[in-house]
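Lab notebook, bench 4. Still working through the backlog of constructs that have no structural model yet. Next entry is a single chain of 127 residues. Request: give me the structure tokens for it.
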Amino acid sequence: MAVSLALICATPVAADTPSAMPTPAEVRADYEAARTRWGKSPDIMGDLVIVAHDRPFRTRPLFRSTMVSHFSRRHYQQEKGLSGHMRGIAIAGAISMALTHDEFLDWYLHSVDFGRGCHGVDAAAAA
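Model written out:
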């Protein structure tokens, strides 16, 4: 399965195509661009989010994380149904090839909806 995910994620698609599949290099570039907008989040926040959303986060491959699935739907995919599900699996594969667990967790913490219009730990702390 990892080989097929690598092939799907490495297939070039025009970036202006609405259903373009991000490659691991594009995911890495998106992460690096987003990372310039935030500071270091407290370690306790990462631990709390892991306990609340995905307890085995650190012990299994990143592409199997429920947080990666949620994140990929929010950031990269708009499709519904089986095609959207398959696309989500491929995007999760690209994310897991591009980022470490800690990098992904940092990106997730700075983009997740904490409610009341607060997206990310910085916005939640300021509210």
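Notes after review: The chain has a mean pLDDT of 79. DSSP finds seven helices and no strands in the chain. Flag for follow-up if needed.
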